[in-house]
Structure formats: structure tokens, C-alpha cells
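User: For a teaching handout, I'd like to show students what a predicted protein-ligand complex looks like in C-alpha cell form. I'll give you the sequence and the SMILES for S-adenosylmethionine. Please answer with just the structure.
Assistant: Understood, here is the input followed by the structure.
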Amino acid sequence: MNVANRMRSQLPAAGLLSAAHAPTAIAHRHPVSRTVLVSAIGSDDTPTKRFLVPRGSRRAPEPSQPVEQPLPPARRDERAHREEGRSARDGAGYSRDKPQRRLGPQGGFDRRRNEEHVRRKFNPNSSPNSDEREESNGSRSQSSSNELHTSSQDAPLDPLLTSSPRYLALQQLLRVEEGGAYVGLVNGSPGGWALAGAQGQGQGQGGRQGVEGGEGDEEQLEFGAELDDGGEEEESGPRQQQQRRRDSSYGGGGGGGEASLDPRSRRLLKELVAGVTRLQRRLDFLASRLSNQTPADWEPGVRLVLRLGLFELTERQLPPHALNEHVQLTKVLVRPGAAALVNGVLRAAGRALAAGTLPTPESELTVADSSSSSGSAGNRALLRRLAITHSHPTWLAARWLRRLGPDGAEALLARNNTPPVYSVRVNTLAAGPTAGAAGAAAGGGGSGGRDALAGAVAAELRAAGVKVEESRWLPGEFLRVRSGLQQLLAEGFVTRGSLSVQDESAGLVVALLDPQPGDRLLDCCAAPGGKTLFAAARMRGRGSITALDVSAARLRALRRAAEVAGAAHMVETRAADLREWAAEVAAREARRAREFRREDDEWERGGSGGGGRGGVVRHPDSLLYDKVLLDAPCTGTGVLSKRADLRWRRTPEHLEQLAALQGELLRAAAQLVAPGGVLVYSTCSIEEEENQLQVRSFLERHPEFELEPATPLGPTHGSPQSPSASGAAAAGRRGRGSGGHRGLSGGVPAEVITEEGFVATLPHVHDTDGAFAARLRRLAR
Ligand SMILES: C[S@@+](CC[C@H](N)C(=O)[O-])C[C@H]1O[C@@H](n2cnc3c(N)ncnc32)[C@H](O)[C@@H]1O
């Protein structure tokens, strides 16, 4: 039983605290804001990317200022959480210095200096004789010196230790805590880079590919840039190279660390980094209750070793005696004196686990909370339990609790902590026109070349030891990988271009767009190109796609991927800020349209353009597009199971900034849609501000557009009790489901269509990433 279940099973009824809980409860009867909040560390509140900043507020946002007016309870708690995290960083001597890879005299990797650097990071407050001082004072040294002179810390580290997965995990966790790219670390193994390098970063929105895994059969995978994390990850280029160098100084690559691990140890390393990153809040809660101290006050090294040890004890069922390595690591990486604390906490945890008395958030209910099963105190207690038990920031848990209710919120929170499930798209383009033709039969769901191809690829995969099953949402085009993704990658399916790693929810966005052969398509935020290339496949290689993105580096990855996929001939890349480019194109288009009207008055009356709903009306020289996809940068709250660190990096301020940016991008994209053409707006967020509210507000201001509800396909087997299933029926009744427009737009499974006619998936309901898409049509006149 993992800790979440154990915590649940140990819940004392309100007011009935067990004897084991009582002392802790009495000792910690502070309000939620003090007791809950121990681990906002790692969130970086200051996005620096130009494209993350909406117009009108081009400056990088300031760290949030104290808010004068009273906040609602959830916001209050969250603010306290963040504040605590921030001051904790400062208190622990947290440094924002970006580490550089240490070079020796000949410019090569200097292991010794690297070790020294790492140890300094683990214990920024270390100073000469800090342990002696600690012993005589009975407290930790407060020296701010960063010099390392203690004898144990001067000695070079035992190579056996530095090649242990736990040592490497600690280095990587430190990097994550400093706000570094989790992706680059978890996927930064040489194997991961090699796999991704040839392919141009995979497809499912890109991806340096690496494998994180539990031991045994179960496989957990991390495909970094697959995640739509607001488009913050650069695929290559100087910045990324610099990032990789930084990562490698933390054991992510060079220096002989991770590279020397056997596959099993490497899987363990990935599991440790991902697991501890996800569960850090729950682990910090345990550490604080077992020590009666605040983890945020400890040196980073102590905090991380304890997280790691508690994770292994409670989630990996490591026997307590096996935790000696953690104590040893503390001695050499932090300071000998800290080892006693680590030892004490881990032993206490082992005993509590055996006795079934591990601390739980419920053991600290205040008197008010415990006497109230409903109302705001009850809600606060519930929120606190959910956020700590499932290790999420309070602000996210509060949002989902409000929207999904206790059961829905808990299911989503728990799903975000489960090993992610990956799916792959069968590249019908690489297989030739027959398969492509069948693949383009969107909504057919039947047999034909597409299904035959998917069947053949599935058989090949099974023969290679990869467990796959048919996709429930896009059968014939996608396969679910149950286990063996590492093998799939090693066998070269991705590098050869036969398969792309892509979540089915991303595929549904393209299905809603319904690209057809011959279309003139614009993908506005295209890089690294997962959706562009699926669209190319649906277009059977005929037509044109302009793939625009603000990141030239990510576009280079897209171009390489297009070449491998056999789509390069139809994809033109353009590096630009959509807002600026759209303004330019719209101005040129207006000039052309004026000239054209002068020449042909007929055009103005619509006589030459086909006209009518569903037909695209463009003058012959038009710069506008039949179909425009805006897959906007977003908070990525739909992909938290894959991007373990993202929950700690996102803040309510990001949400606000991104929503403002999305509004601007949507307005820009709309300028590029030909009359009668289609605009699909999508995100991999599950937040209403980024999705439904965004679209509704757009439609209010743009009467020239209307929502086209998604067309439901027939029911799929074993449909979940989806909250949206009833919406699908309603969407069907609204017209297009009856077949009138079926030939014009592809269908999507009814279970992913909301009441309003949007496509929306939720991880805990649909077993995919969370995503959203709306199909808007520009009226012909
Ligand atoms: C969610 S990702 C796109 C993923 C992509 N559609 C796929 O399926 O692979 C968002 C993209 O928007 C890009 N972006 C952000 N701001 C932009 C802007 N102002 N103009 C154009 N692209 C922008 C980012 O560089 C990032 O690649």
C-alpha cells in the first residue's frame, strides 16, 4: 500500500484522534497556513521569456507583492505556501547562481571540482569546523561562508558512491529544486539524447526521450518536451546547449555519472527523480512531523536526502536497514552532523510505518476543523488533506476541488501521481499513399489500409517485446504502449519515422481540425511539430502547411522531424511572433483584397468565391488560410503526470499571464482565417481561464466567428462515466451530428465532447493527458 492509501486508511474520524496522533496534533495546532506549507521550493515565479509576457505588460513580471485586500481562504493558504517557500530558500542560503560545468586545466571535465561544487550546493552554509561549532552550540552553524574545509568534505568522494543512482538522483533533484529543466535531467541521459537526436525530438510535441522506470515490468516514461509547458523548453541551440552543460554538472550526462549506470540502475534513477519530484510535498510533510522541524529551514542536501529516503521507504518499500546509504550520503555531501538528523527521521519513519502510525494531515485537525464536517473549516481541512496527501500546490488543489468536487479532484490529483501512459502515432505518410488515404478517412473508424498498417506495426512491436494495444480514441492511428517503450525506441521505430510518440489527446485536437488533402493550413504555435505532422498525415501529403513558431530552435527540430516523417515537401517553417506576423499578413491581405475588388466587383458580392457555410471564400491571391490551428502556450496542467516538476513551477500569476497571452494569440490567429475557414484553438491545460472562458470571450468580441460543436462519432467500447458524455448527445442534436456536415469536419468520440461542443479530456476520466480544443468557423461574409 502506498502512502496515499495508507494515509487514507489511517484517517481518524474528525475529533477522534488516536493516541498516536494526539501529541502531534497538540504540538501543531497552528492554522493551516503554517502547518501545511513546507515545499514551494523549486517554483520560479519569474518567467523571463518574452513570449510569456502579454502585450501591455512586456516587462518580466515582478515577484508578487503583498496583497492588501483579504483573500479567499484558498488564495490565502496558497500565498502563505509560496511565501514560506521563498523565505525558506533565502534562509537556507539558496543560491540562484546557475552552476556551470567544471572544466579542468585542459578544458576537460574536472570531477574533483564538480564534486566540490555539488557539495557546496548541498550545504551552502558549510564553513570551517562547522560540525565542531554545531556540537558545542547544539545548533547548526549560521555561517554564510561558502567555503568547504571540513576534513570529510575535502576528501574526494568514493567513485563507488558517485556512480550510485542515489547520489546521481540527489544531484538531479537539486537541479530541479533550483528551477532547472526537469526535462533535461530526467531525459538527459546520453541514451535519451542519442535517441532523440536523430529523430529531431520525436513528435508528441517533441521530446528528448528517456526512460524512467520502476523495477520489474512496470515502465514509467518521461518524455520531456512532449509536454506543452507553455513552450518554455528549447529544443536546441546555444541556450539549450548551455542548459545541457549545466545539467551534466549535476550528473545528468557527462562526467561519467549516469553514463556508467546499467539499465536497471538508470531506471531506478529516473524513478527516484520523478517520484521524489512529484511527491515532495507529502514527503516534506512526513519529514516535518517526524522531526518537529521545518524542512524549508534545512540545507538543501538534508531536505533532499530525507525526501529520497522517505520516498524509498514509503513508496518503494525499501527496508529501513537499507537506508544506511542515505545517511552516508548526508555525511559526505552535507556534513557529518546532519547525518544524525537524517538517521533519526528515517528510523522514526520506519517504526511509524511498521506500526501503522505514519503522520497524516488529519492528525492535525484543529478543534474548529474537527468539529466541523462542513462549511469553510471543513473545506479547508479537506483541501489540506488532498493537497498534502497527493502532493500538489494548494492553489491547484483548491481550483480542482471547486470545479470537480471532492471525488473528482481526488481522482485527478491521484492520477497525476501515477506513472504516465504513453501512446504512439503510426505514421501513415511513411507507409505510402494507400495507408495515408485510409488514415485520412477521419471518423470512419473502420478497416482499410490505415487499420492494416496499424495492425502490422502493432505486430512488429509485439514481436520486439513491446506491449501495445489499440487506441480507444483514435483507433487505427494511435497505439497505447503498456510497456516496453524503451525497447520501442531502441528498435528505431521512432528514428525511422514509422512511429511518433504523441498523446491521444493531441491527436484529438487534429481530428477536430480535420485537415483534408489539398488544404492550405497554418499551424500558429507549431513547434516542435507533433500536431503539424499528424495534420500532414491526415492530408495524405497533399496541400501545404505553414508551421509558425516564435522559437527558431524548436522549428529546426520540427523540420528535422518533418523530413523523417516524409512530410518535408509540404511543410514550410516560419520563425516569428504570431502577433507581429499576423498584423503584417492582415495588412497585406487587406491591400490585396482592395485591389482584387477593384478588378472584380463580383467578388465583393461573393459570387466568385463559392460562398455558403462550410465553403472557404478566398480571392485567388489571398494570403489567408483554410484551416488555422492555434495550439497555444499554456500552464500545462493537463500533463502533470508526465511533467513531474511542473506543478511546483506554475503559479496563479502564470495562469493569468498565459491567459492574457492566449487571448492575444487567438485574436492574431483569427486574422489569418479565410472567410468560411476554420480556426481550432487548443491547449494542454485543464483550466477554464485558458479554455472555455477564452473561447467564450473571443466569440463575444468576434461576431464574424461561430462555434462549430464537435461532431460525435459512434460510441466507443467501455466508455467511462464521463461528465461530458451527455454533452456529446447534446452536440449531436445540435445539427452536425446528424450527418449534415459530417463530410466537412471529422468526428471525435462522443465521450470527449462537452455540453457546449468543445473537445475536452481529463486525465482521470479519459486516461489521456488533459487537453482542450474548440472549433470556430469564420462566417463566409
Ligand atoms: C504548446 S506548444 C506547441 C506544441 C505544438 N503545437 C505541437 O503539437 O508540437 C506552444 C508553442 O507556442 C510557441 N509560442 C509561444 N509564444 C508564441 C508567439 N507569440 N508566437 C508564436 N509562437 C509562440 C512556443 O514556442 C511553443 O512552441
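For the handout, you might add this sentence: The CA atoms of residues 295 and 303 lie 6 Å apart.
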